UniProtKB/TrEMBL annotation:
It comes from Sinobacterium norvegicum. Belongs to the TRAP transporter small permease family. This is TRAP transporter small permease protein. Part of the tripartite ATP-independent periplasmic (TRAP) transport system. It is found in: Cell inner membrane. Keywords: Cell inner membrane, Cell membrane, Membrane, Transmembrane, Transmembrane helix, Transport. It is a multi-pass membrane protein. Coiled coil: none annotated.
Amino acid sequence: MPTVIKIIHRLEDSVLVAMVLAMIGLAISQIWLRNFHDSGISWADNALRVMVLWLAMIGAMIATRERNHIAIDVLKIYASKRGKRVLAMLASASTAVICYIGAWYSGEFVLLEYEYSYAAFASVPAWLCEAIIPFGLAVIGWRFTLQFVMAMFWWDKLEVAQ
């Protein structure tokens, strides 16, 4: 695997771990402040909601990268080797198209949020918090496109990877 791709994978993994640790730290701080000091961080709840969104999108990107995403294998059980290949190609292509459409429309949504410039929490613009949606969907779509190409041309190598 090329070094650039390894760096991207490590970056994704690092962001995911950092996000989980930050969420745990912020949630524990908020609980501690509320229960023992009758105070709290005013923006913490909204920040945690945004972090859950980012965590979900980055987790989905990693799951797609590792081919550990949710899949319905009812037809795959009964299909021949050629049928499995066709099903894999169909599933990857249709999922990629859906992700690209979702990325397009969520990108338009983020642009509208940018124009109206609402704050999500602590003066952080909402569009910045929501930008992970089109980015994540585009990355997931790209990975499904690569899986389609792998199923089309390098099926034997793809079978080994599963």
